Amino acid sequence: MINVRHALLADYAMVSQDGKLSIIGIFERLFAQKCPVTHPMMCLVLSFEADRGDAGKQHRLEFQLIDADGAVQFSFGGDMAVAPPPPGESLRFNHIVNLNNIVFKEFGSYEFKVLVNGEVRVGVPVRITLADMPNQPPAGSVDSPDGGQ
After folding, report:
1. Three-state DSSP class for 45?
2. pLDDT tens, 45-67?
3. Residue 115 in contact with residue 58, Cβ under 8 Å?
4. 74 pLDDT above the threshold of 60
5. Other C-beta atoms within 10 Å of 110: how many?
6. Which CATH number fits the domain 3-130, given the four candidates 3.30.530.20, 3.20.20.30, 2.60.40.2550, 1.10.357.10?
């Protein structure tokens, strides 16, 4: 069975040539002034673990964005093959899904579901929250450095 060891959302992630996973800006909440809102780029970062029984087979990997009502906002996927692990070991590998221009229609909770061979392996939550606007002076007012004196 293929299992997900780690799953998270981040601003950026990469896997080095020697297999090290680097992650910048892990988050579970995005702020917006209004909805719908388009988030320009995020990464769904995953670490998988597979055993010998998974080697040499094609496996279907699918990703779904689910809204607070349980409706699928979008879905995509593909097939992957798992190479045989060294004798006596399980195979671990990282996968990064770059998600560009994702539209969130409303404020609230969403979840990226990760399915392997049609079975949900993990859900990664993200919440879209109304951004607090900083206090701004009333229109037409002027701030003076001496406090108006």
Report:
1. strand
2. 999 998 888 888 899 999 999 99
3. no
4. yes
5. 20
6. 2.60.40.2550
